[in-house]
């Protein structure tokens, strides 16, 4: 079952192969391939594989992934992965392509996804992990109703080095 969500300003829809060109533009972004599964090289096959993998999340019961669409064109991503399904806990991730940043669209996407995940998605606790230097992402989480709970030291490898991350959570 495909889930399509309507935010105040954006549409969240499943990824489609028509999004391949958008994914290819992201390969030159200095941040997105570093922190996500977006391929780091402009390879159309890798871009299509990324899209296919996003849609498998839901069909395989691992979570959800949406293309964030503004004015009919994809501008970003928001998705959630189960971290402890039997406990109702999942993590949310999000990013926005360069031209659409700092316009409030990511906040709308995260707010919309979180509201659905915490009601119809069956999630009781939704977590976001934000690198301390990424103040824009922290602002998105806070504006979307997440509260910072603490700093997790050496949380995840990013760019070949283990990095800290703030833990944000939203429970309703």
UniProtKB/TrEMBL annotation:
<dbReference type="GO" id="GO:1990189">
    <property type="term" value="F:protein N-terminal-serine acetyltransferase activity"/>
</dbReference>
<dbReference type="InterPro" id="IPR000182">
    <property type="entry name" value="GNAT_dom"/>
</dbReference>
<dbReference type="InterPro" id="IPR051908">
    <property type="entry name" value="Ribosomal_N-acetyltransferase"/>
</dbReference>
<dbReference type="GO" id="GO:0005737">
    <property type="term" value="C:cytoplasm"/>
</dbReference>
<keyword id="KW-0808">Transferase</keyword>
<dbReference type="Pfam" id="PF13302">
    <property type="entry name" value="Acetyltransf_3"/>
</dbReference>
<dbReference type="GO" id="GO:0008999">
    <property type="term" value="F:protein-N-terminal-alanine acetyltransferase activity"/>
</dbReference>
<protein>
    <submittedName>
        <fullName>Protein N-acetyltransferase, RimJ/RimL family</fullName>
    </submittedName>
</protein>
<dbReference type="InterPro" id="IPR016181">
    <property type="entry name" value="Acyl_CoA_acyltransferase"/>
</dbReference>
<feature type="domain" description="N-acetyltransferase">
    <location>
        <begin position="10"/>
        <end position="172"/>
    </location>
</feature>
